[in-house]
Amino acid sequence: MRKMLLAFLLLIGLAAPIGLAGQNPANADRTLVFIPKATNSQFWIAIWEGTKKAAQELGYKEVGFQGVSSAGDVTGQVNIFNDVATSRPAGILIAVNDAKALSAPAERAIEMGVPVVTVNAAVETEKVLAHAATDNYQAAALGARAFGKLIGGKGKVIFIGIDASSENGRARESGFRDAIAKEFPNITILPTQHSLGDISRGMNITNDLLTGNPDVVGIFCAQDNGGTGAAQALRQRGIKDRIKLVSFDASPDEFQLFMDGFFDALVVQDPFMQGYMGVYALDKIINRQPLEKKFFETPVRIITRDNLSEPDIYDIMARNSATLNIMKAKGIVRK
Fold it and tell me: Distance between CA 272 and CA 320 in Å, rounded?
């Protein structure tokens, strides 16, 4: 796995000489901190695992993990970020809940001498020199094309977003709606409802919209907890056979529902690699080495139960031990 990751870093211009040669002694007493959008999703744990793997390779002491319980708690994340910056770690990685609200705190931290790199969700300031993430607009467009084909290119559908203040959420909604409008003019999308990254809210939204719109033929969700809630609603109602469901991500609970047939496809990011690449970029900044670019894009794949054995898809899923165990239990092996 190390060879594969380093080969990928070489491809995107991130693997520093110290990373290839071994641990940097100067990092031995340095601590990094990862601040996720929230602590209530395994997606952020997967990013943390990637940060820890890279930090171990580069010789850092540890990567802390501090976050709010809900992605809707913008004030709480700002407070945590300020507290972490005041403690002066070697560097901070953050997936911001609000691109504007975290801009001034990020700038202050950098002015204090604490480098900041964003992962998954960016902040509105040019002082943050690196960002590792999915191209959310293109990923949602990719998902929209798969979704449109699944429902036969016509009908009424539900779109469950993340949060109105989420930059990722806005990009995913735009990517989805633009692709549907351009390629599937006979699909009608109901007004967006936001799950706020909460499973119960995603379930309630789905139930309410299905009650008011019994002719819905498909549901697309922009985030894993919203998708998990939608799948639970379909299971509760016993109507999965007539409604297609596609969602972003593959948290363990969501992936188990996918394997059990309650999702037709998932738009899968690579959270592990977001964290891994983020630390390598942060290490370059800490050690005053040049970065060739600011945006380090991580891959996205559309997964179905028919393509899980494909090497590029299997490898992404296998980086999370929980999803790997689910695949093993279902007899899924890499081709």
Answer: 8
Residue 185 confidence (pLDDT): 97
CB-based contacts of 282, cutoff 8 Å, min separation 6? 32, 91, 93, 115, 117, 130
Mean pLDDT value across the chain: 93
- Answer yes or no: is pLDDT of 20 > 50: no
Q: Give just the sign of the alpha carbon dihedral 142, 46, 65, 57.
A: negative
Q: Is the pLDDT of residue 4 over 80?
A: no
Integer Cα distance of 119 and 134 in angstroms: 9
Which residue in 174, 171, 176, 168 sits closest to 147, CA to CA?
A: 176
| Structural domain includes residue 330 | no
Residues ≥6 apart with Cβ < 8 Å to 143? 175, 176, 220, 246, 248, 265, 267, 302
Domain count, the chain: 2
Same domain? 82 vs 128: yes
Strand partners, 301: 268
Domain that holds residue 154: 136-268
Alpha-carbon distance 151 to 169, whole Å? 23
The span from the CA of 274 to the CA of 159, in Å, is 25
pLDDT > 70: percent of the chain: 93
Domain membership flag for residue 255: yes
Q: What is the CATH number of the domain that holds 35?
A: 3.40.50.2300
Quote the distance between the C-alpha of residue 118 and its chain's center. 12
Mention every residue, 6+ apart, whose C-beta is less than 8 A from residue 290: 284
Q: Is the pLDDT of residue 331 over 80?
A: yes
Domain match, 129 and 275 both: yes
Report d(CA 44, CA 169) in Å as an integer: 16
- Rounded to whole angstroms, how far apart are CA atoms 335 and 100? 44
Percent of the chain at pLDDT > 90 equals 85
- Tokens representing residue 117 in the block: 């790199």
